[in-house]
Amino acid sequence: MVRNPKQSRILSARLRPHNLLENKDAGASQDTRKGVQSVDHAFAILGVFEQAQGALAVKDVADHLGLTPSKVHHYLVSLVRSGALRQNSSGTYDLGAFALQLGLSAMRKLEPIELGAVAARNLRDQTGEAVFMSVWGSYGPTILRYYEGFQPVTVEARAGLVLPVLTSATGHVFATWGVKTLVEPVLENEGTARSLDQIMQRTKEAGLGSVDGDLLPRVASLSAPVFDQEGRLSLALTALGWSGELDISLSGPLAKQLLLQSQNLSRQLGYHWSVHEVG
Fold it and tell me: Residue 203 pLDDT > 90, yes or no?
């Protein structure tokens, strides 16, 4: 059920802004298959605790979900019994040991590269632009997957290609959010003709790296960071196209789709954007 304004205010200081019960993925279709309603309710309750900054009372959860306190209490008893929640001496509830182990197990099984490849393909399919995924390699930002756009850009962008830090949108992402001890030696080889501080400030404020003709005279690109559960930069998603044709404006549809894909992928890897904001 949708929360009313009063219910939202009750938990505004204790819950992160996003609501698990609201689907944030653009274009995602609602699953209409028949399921077990009690299981749906139980996971909705767990979702409230996942978003909370601290322990919650029965009434807090009930108000947030639009359920009666007595109904919520029955679920809480079962969830405590299973170890998914624990009850404190004050009578409030919080996530339990089983929830922690379940989350850790899920994170151990994540494959960031494969998930990143899916996100890159999705971005290409949605925008029609050429898209690639990069990680930090031995010599700098390195392309791992490249997906040709619907209107191919005739540049040498292929798996294994190492990109410069100072003159590529991907490099700006790694310079801004990457491990400084890894980035600095590469920068020494590239030189510091351009102001790195200005690049990093602009990139951090925008939440995206962008270049227009910096690396190649006729090529523009936008790049977004993807973070893991520890808040570390895991990889970058980058779209590129012809300068003057690729919309690299921060308010444009490409930038919005790129941020959406990168943020969704970061969430899959355990990162909470409401806690660690880019920009």
Answer: yes
